From TrEMBL:
Keywords attached to this entry: Dioxygenase, Iron, Oxidoreductase
Domain of life, source organism: Bacteria
The keyword Oxidoreductase is annotated on this UniProt entry: yes
Species, as recorded: Advenella kashmirensis W13003
The name this protein goes by in its record: 2-oxoadipate dioxygenase/decarboxylase
Enzyme class: oxidoreductase
Family: Belongs to the 2-oxoadipate dioxygenase/decarboxylase family.
Gene3D superfamilies from the UniProt entry: Uncharacterised protein PF07063, DUF1338
EC number in record: 1.13.11.93
Molecular function terms from GO: dioxygenase activity
Amino acid sequence: MENLRFVSTDEIRTRFSTAMSNMYGQEVPLYRDLLDLVADVNAQTLQATPQLQTRLQASGEIERLNPERHGAIRLGTAQELSGIRRVFAVLGLEPVGYYDLSVAGVPVHATAFRPVTDASLAVNPFRVFTSLLRLELIEDEALRAKAADILAQRSIFSDRVLALADKFDAQGGLDSTDADEFVREATDIFRWHSEATVSIETYNQLLSAHRLIADVVCFKGPHINHLTPRTLDIDAAQTEMVRRRIPAKESIEGPPTRRHPILLRQTSFKALEENVTFDSGTEKVVGAHTARFGEIEQRGQALTPKGRALYDQLLLRAREAAEQASVSYTERLARAFTEFPDDLAMIRKNGLGYFRYSLTDKSVGASGDAFDGTADIEALIEAGLVQAEPIVYEDFLPVSAAGIFQSNLGGDDQKSYQASAAKAAFEQALGAKVNDEFALYEAAEQRSLDEVARQLQSVTV
Ligand code: OOG
Ligand code: NI
């Protein structure tokens, strides 16, 4: 039974995401400008499109929109990853999906920690894209050993945060005072440290192996490297960034502009160059590091494996063609995606996206005869008795993530690695299996169908 002394994990997550957003706003003031921009764009979009407002109100999404954020962290060791899993469990976050970024020249693999139930997602869908450095991809053996050695010396968790995570496990929850202390301690893990733990020579060596390796290895902890508010119109947000002279990334990642958004579209402002102090034992040297930025996302419909395969295929076509083409990437992308239906009924009938089904107002007054028990869902939709709303995509996209990484690491050297997914090794480091994102969406869709069937039965009897 639920213990009333405890605050819910949803509540702890909301306190945490608020604390993180406040901390990052102080650390990176431009992030606050981004929040203002997104709030303005969202208000204008809702005003200009009353149907969207009505739809978001009906689905309850309007309430989660303002506090909605995702963040990203990069970890160095298996111990750090399994520790983070325990800390995030207190916030009601579970690992979902496996992302191999080595294919895109970034030596990490990753998962997304996020809530998994409909109810928790509705309260606050805060997520953290969490990468683990793959030291085995560093070719230089001596440098690899050195990086491992430096990482082995740091401890990113305070005794207190671990003790509170133990207490959460033992009691099955935390009371409000413990929750507040936990949030303070957990937020601290992701704070920025402007003092590197290494000399500038070591930093430069790691930087030349890959800029990301320096970012992970040379600091006291895994600083949050961006936080991302959700917009209702990313094209407007992109234009507005340029107008407000925020140094925007050149193009939006993900699918093109559509009437019915799918998956995820993202843009960002370029990472700041920040002063860092390096310690060479005898003296302190000031240098610079680029890693932290701000991002904006627009979320659309979650796709089935079939829809996702079509997305991947069309994206690849646009990207390959873009290399030698005279037309812009945006134009190529738009052309490629004319093959992806932009009509909800077509998406549904072709099994490309996930939907949440419910009875319409019309069904309330309808007599039992309207449901003869044999009617299938399409017939019920046709008759206006059942409606199908797209389920929101709650995850990330590996190609987009790679684009975000690349545009924010500074420098433009492209590395390539022997591409190799290593999901089993990742799960071993994590100490758990990652949830399958498709299974989660499918279950959400099925629950809605079961509920419709149950309600229909109560009408017919
Ligand atoms: C993570 C990049 C991935 C996204 O939104 O796709 C990401 C990173 O830069 O560490 O956050
Ligand atoms: Ni991101």
